[in-house]
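Per your request, structure below.
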């Protein structure tokens, strides 16, 4: 039976090609995602290993590496004490800064869309465990103010040469810098900044720029002498440290930073794997259809095997062996495609600033195991139902000319489909409106159950549509239309299964279209309702910018009534991540409509906090209670002065004064400025004056209310573009499913087509017939997908009302475009099968058994 299965495969190579291709695409996406994830992990591990000393001395505080370095510093007088510790070879102080952007020779920022813009002081201190940290690759180290060294990749991208003046924009008091490039640097032991930029200054210059001239450092590296372990040196260093300063081993600091960052970006892997799973589910429909048709075409052959003594188990095993071989071949090719997809994913994320091109590709054994497990298991499971039907062929069937496979009743399948839809709806309801653990998994499982349920019930659900199209075809295309309609209704299971593959991809597209359109409409409504100021000043990357911008607007722009500064920073409350917002409560009340549920914004002072309503409920706190907050500058305890309703202007749930924000250890850099112009003043003149102030700062812009809404819509459009790009893979597989089904159907009906041609059907009429059959499949899938997408989209937006997305907007024009594209898909998918049918030799076709 094994040899028979192999002969069968070799005799039907072309028929299985597209089915294998579906597995190749799905497995390729899984493999590419895992390779990308492992390479990303390796790259960050290498970066942080080369970015710490044997022992790191730093201020005690909260989340390390979050929100930039703390403003809490360590005095430079500690240098001699650290260097004198027994077992220490040397001690080096580090100045660290975030928000120093390199502007290239064409006036465009390098990076900034994700990875940070770093700066610091030059030091030749070795990294931990004897690794080499940064080394000069060209030129020399900076020797005084007005000189800078850039990392080699940034220097290459920016177009600057040694001796050029480099344009820098900072988030510090001095907003714009033009130092001379005197050298480039890179990691001596390999590694990459993964898209981040690095500007390095002489130590005194860095202290003047980033520490306000303090003779201090953000951290120290203490290098161990030969034979001294990191743990021993850490304990000895700790004995000489003042209060508020701690020592950790370099390995601990590197692992801590790497794990925090990898946890923060772990959503990338999850995000990509979700779309790989979607592709595999859609591909499964193609595989089921392919094996169902192939088994139907070979029913006489398989019945003869039964008549010759093969058992049901052997016949079933034969089909599953074929599926296993297809899965193995598809998985092998998928691994190769995975490497290409990894390169594509790496390039795509490089456009968003996450550049890991400097790290060698990591190909772990788990990637190979996952690829073969996914490819083979999915293929075998998809082929199980056709194999089971095959084993039920009675041996006596071999004596008849019209061998037919036994079919489960559509009634039973319809009931199973309804049960799946009901179960899925319950799961979706619990995930969206109930309180269940791992709600995301419950939501995903419920969605999948509904999709599979509709797919199972679709042969029955499609009957009215197929009857209607059959009637319409007969009136519109005469005999050819009648034949096309009858062929579509001949096997509703096959037609519906092929349409279901398209349905799943389109359902997700429609859902995301509704979510995206509703989110943008909600942003517009929220800005119009809650923002009453005249102008907003912000950074194009959404990161902090220099406070000198607000200072100059307050001092130099005539007619400005108030300037409200908003500053953001990450904190932890009870071990969970939250966001802290620093502002001036008096001016905030003038530029934004803040609805206080309890307490008053006017009561906010340096020792208190106002919090969002949902956070107050989650934490179980009210006005007058104490709230402990862990920030990068240490722990702080605030009194709750008020609770405010959901408000898009206050994008972070914990609001404190500017003074309290600075005390928490955050840099006094602004994320947003709300500018209110006094009544009767010339708004356009005020805007022009503000634009003159920020003219030299490439990253900062002035916007009115409409411009603010447009800026907030930008990230939504970017995310939708990425999602549509990934869903396109599932749609490609669905189109291949239509092509495959039609091509196999042509082979299955070879004799019938020959007879039709013999009695006068022209090649053109034959191609039209097949094209009409394809359009039926595509439009059926489009209608089912659009209907489900509408339901999912509206339900999801209803659940998101509590998150401030209160407007449900259905993009009818976009949905109509989806239907038109589906119609075109049907026409194009029929090109190859129709040409194949038209080329059949009439006499040979008639003679086919």
């Amino acid at each position: 039976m094994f040899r028979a299965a192999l002969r069968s495969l070799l005799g039907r190579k072309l028929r299985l090609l597209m089915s294998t291709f579906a597995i190749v695409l799905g497995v390729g996406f899984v493999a590419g995602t895992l390779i990308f994830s492992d390479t990303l992990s390796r790259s960050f591990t290498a970066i942080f290993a080369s970015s710490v000393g044997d022992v790191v001395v730093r201020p005690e505080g909260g989340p390390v590496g979050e929100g930039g370095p703390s403003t809490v510093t360590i005095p430079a007088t500690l240098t001699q004490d650290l260097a004198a510790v027994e077992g220490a070879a040397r001690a080096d102080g580090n100045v660290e800064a975030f928000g120093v952007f390199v502007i290239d020779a064409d006036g465009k920022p390098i990076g900034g869309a994700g990875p940070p813009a770093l700066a610091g002081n030059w030091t030749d201190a070795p990294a931990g465990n004897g690794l080499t940290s940064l080394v000069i690759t060209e030129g020399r180290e900076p020797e005084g103010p007005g000189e800078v060294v850039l990392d080699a990749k940034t220097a290459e991208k920016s177009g600057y040469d040694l001796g050029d003046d480099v344009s820098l924009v900072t988030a510090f008091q001095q907003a714009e810098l033009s130092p001379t490039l005197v050298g480039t640097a890179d990691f001596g032991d390999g590694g990459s900044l993964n898209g981040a930029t690095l500007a390095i200054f002489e130590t005194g210059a860095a202290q003047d720029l980033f520490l306000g001239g303090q003779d201090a450092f953000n951290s120290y590296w203490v290098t161990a002498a030969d034979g001294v372990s990191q743990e021993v040196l850490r304990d000895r260093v700790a004995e000489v440290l003042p209060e508020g300063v701690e020592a950790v081993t370099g390995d601990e600091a590197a692992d801590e930073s790497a794990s925090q960052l990898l946890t923060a970006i772990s959503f990338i892997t999850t995000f990509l794997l979700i779309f790989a799973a979607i592709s595999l589910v859609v591909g499964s429909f193609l595989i089921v259809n392919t094996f169902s048709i192939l088994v139907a075409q070979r029913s006489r052959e398989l019945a003869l095997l039964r008549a010759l003594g093969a058992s049901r188990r052997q016949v079933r095993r034969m089909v599953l062996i074929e599926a296993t071989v297809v899965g193995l071949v598809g998985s092998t090719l998928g691994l190769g495609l995975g490497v290409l997809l990894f390169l594509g994913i790496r390039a795509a994320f490089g456009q968003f600033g996450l550049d890991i091109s400097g790290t060698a590709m990591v190909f772990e054994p788990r990637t190979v195991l996952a690829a073969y497990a996914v490819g083979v298991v999915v293929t075998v499971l998809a082929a199980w139902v056709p194999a089971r039907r095959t084993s039920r062929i009675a041996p006596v069937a071999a004596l008849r000319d019209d061998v037919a496979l036994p079919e489960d009743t559509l009634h039973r399948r319809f009931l199973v489909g309804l049960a799946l839809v009901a179960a899925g709806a319950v799961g979706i309801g619990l995930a969206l409106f109930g309180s269940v653990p791992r709600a995301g998994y419950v939501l995903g499982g419920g969605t999948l159950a509904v999709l599979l349920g509709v797919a199972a019930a679709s042969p029955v659900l499609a009957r009215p549509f197929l009857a209607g199209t059959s009637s319409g075809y007969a009136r519109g295309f005469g005999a050819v239309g009648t034949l096309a309609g009858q062929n579509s209704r001949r096997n509703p299971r096959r037609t519906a299964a092929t349409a279901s593959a398209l349905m799943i991809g389109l359902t997700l597209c429609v859902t995301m279209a509704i979510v995206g359109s509703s989110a943008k409409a909600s942003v517009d409504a929220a800005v119009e309702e809650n923002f009453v100021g005249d102008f907003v000043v912000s950074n194009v990357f959404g990161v902090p910018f220099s406070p000198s911008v607000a200072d100059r607007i307050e001092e130099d722009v005539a007619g400005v009534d108030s300037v409200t500064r908003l500053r953001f920073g990450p904190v932890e409350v009870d071990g969970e991540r939250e966001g802290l917002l620093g502002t001036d409560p008096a001016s905030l009340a003038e530029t934004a409509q803040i609805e206080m549920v309890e307490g008053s914004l006017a009561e906010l002072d340096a020792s208190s906090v106002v919090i969002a309503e949902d956070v107050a409920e989650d934490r179980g706190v009210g006005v007058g209670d104490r709230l402990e907050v862990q920030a990068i500058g240490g722990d702080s305890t605030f009194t709750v002065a008020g609770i405010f309703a959901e408000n898009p202007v206050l994008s972070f749930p914990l609001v404190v004064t500017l003074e309290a924000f600075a005390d928490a250890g955050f840099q006094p850099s602004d994320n947003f400025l709300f500018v209110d112009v006094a009544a009767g003043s010339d708004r356009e003149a005020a805007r022009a004056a503000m634009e003159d102030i920020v003219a030299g700062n490439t990253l900062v812009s002035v916007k009115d209310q409409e411009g603010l809404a447009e800026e907030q819509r930008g990230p939504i459009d970017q995310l939708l573009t990425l999602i549509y790009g990934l869903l396109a893979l599932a749609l490609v597989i669905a189109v291949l499913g239509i092509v495959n089904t039609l091509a196999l159907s042509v082979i299955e009906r070879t004799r019938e087509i020959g007879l039709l041609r013999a009695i006068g059907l022209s090649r053109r009429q034959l191609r039209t017939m097949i094209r009409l059959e394809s359009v039926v499949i595509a439009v059926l899938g489009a209608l089912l997908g659009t209907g489900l997408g509408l339901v999912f989209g509206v339900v999801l937006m209803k659940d998101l009302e509590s998150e401030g997305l209160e407007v449900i907007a259905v993009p009818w024009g976009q949905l109509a475009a989806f239907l038109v594209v589906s119609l075109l898909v049907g026409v194009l998918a029929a090109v190859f099968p129709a040409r194949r049918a038209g080329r059949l030799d009439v006499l040979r076709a008639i003679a086919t058994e």
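Confidence is low (pLDDT under 50) at residues 401-407.

Regards,
D.
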